[in-house]
Design brief:
single chain; 27% strand; 149 residues; two-stranded antiparallel sheet; alpha+beta; 7 helices; 5-stranded mixed beta sheet
């Protein structure tokens, strides 16, 4: 999946708990969450189609609602809003700004995963502020502190 996304050229950020796992933080999750630039939704969907992942909405419907799901054995939540407001700070977190500060992680030789920088990943966790998001923020703050020493 990561190889297909990387080769598609879609601006796609792995967010949610899988992003924490990619950063080396041991948490459990069963799905994937991506924040994809809305201009790249067709590329993203086309890349995952050969894997049997089918969107539950057309690109136009996804843009209208800001999100959709790809499913077939795996569950992939796709956010495509240009910006999302933090429930904690009220700050508007914009895709383009997060993309500009993204981290590139090597998945395997020649294949990369893009995740928000830790500060921006914390901001994405502030969108819902569920108990697990609060716990994830604490883990991300520890990771940030470890990386700054």
């Amino acid at each position: 999946m990561f190889r297909a996304i990387d080769r598609s050229g879609a601006r796609a950020l792995l967010i949610g708990r899988r992003a924490l796992v990619a950063l080396g933080i041991p948490v459990m999750t069963s799905d994937y969450d991506f924040w994809v630039h809305r201009d790249d939704l067709a590329k993203f969907n086309a890349a995952l189609e050969p894997l049997g992942l089918a969107p539950n909405k057309t690109v136009e419907q996804a843009i209208a609602t800001g999100r959709y799901v790809l499913e077939n054995g795996e569950h992939v939540d796709v956010l495509n809003a240009r910006a999302v407001q933090s429930k904690v700070t009220g700050e508007l977190v914009q895709f383009d700004a997060v993309w500009a500060q993204r981290r590139e992680l090597a998945y395997e030789p020649g294949v990369h995963i893009f995740v928000p920088c830790i500060d921006d990943l914390i901001k994405t966790k502030q969108w819902s502020m569920r108990d697990r998001d609060i716990a994830d923020i604490r883990l991300l703050e520890i990771k940030r502190a470890e990386e700054s020493t």
